[in-house]
Specification:
It is a single chain. 39% of the residues lie in helices and 37% in strands. The protein is an alpha+beta fold. Strands 1-3-4-6-5 form a five-stranded mixed beta barrel. A hairpin with a 5-residue loop joins strand 2 and strand 3. It starts with a helix and ends in a 7-residue tail after the last strand. 10% of the residues are buried.
Length: 177
């Protein structure tokens, strides 16, 4: 049978069949790419998709710009907010926020590690903090990291990393426990 086909399919006939097969493969590959793109799009719409960001370079820039220098923390205040006013009459509040992480040590015991963060709130947020927050209040914040330095009383240069808050969420004093 194979010899018969080889003898029958000569010249133009075999070239035509090869072109038809190539066209068919092109259609199959195009269909596969379309379906996979639609699946990736559907997956990205239903969840925060790392897969979508990897496969869509055009969307990566806009999404990554919003993640650039972004910090989200949830924790408890170590003391009442320290509220001050600048020379230009802008109110700000400084807060020490404790966040906890948990792991098990070699003996299998649960270990809590506390990290302290310096938080800065401006204007309306500072007023809200002054009015509603106390030591031990639970808050969630979203902001950006800021590095600065100052010279202390002894003339030593000190470096500070703070979170400048964009958004804050907290419960009122009466509903916290």
């Amino acid at each position: 049978m194979q010899k018969y086909l080889q003898q029958t399919l000569t010249g133009r006939t075999s070239e035509a069949i090869i072109r038809i097969i190539q066209s068919y493969l092109d259609v199959v590959i195009y269909s596969f790419k379309t379906v996979s793109t639609r699946l990736i799009y559907a997956f990205s719409k239903s969840s925060s998709s790392i897969l979508h960001r990897r496969n869509s370079p055009a969307n990566t820039t806009s999404k990554m710009n919003t993640l650039n220098n972004s910090v989200r923390l949830t924790g408890f205040l170590g003391s009442a907010p320290e509220v001050k006013v600048t020379e230009s009459e802008k109110k700000f509040a400084k807060i020490n926020l404790a966040t906890n992480s948990y792991h098990r040590n070699a003996k299998g015991e649960k270990v809590t590690e506390t990290t302290w963060h310096q938080i800065v709130l401006w204007e309306k947020q500072a007023e809200l903090a002054e009015k509603y927050l106390d030591k031990g209040s639970k808050i969630s914040i979203e902001g950006r990291l800021s590095n600065r330095y100052y010279t202390d009383k002894d003339g030593i240069k000190r470096y500070v990393t703070e979170v400048i808050v964009n958004e804050m969420d907290f419960s009122s004093k009466s509903s916290q426990n």
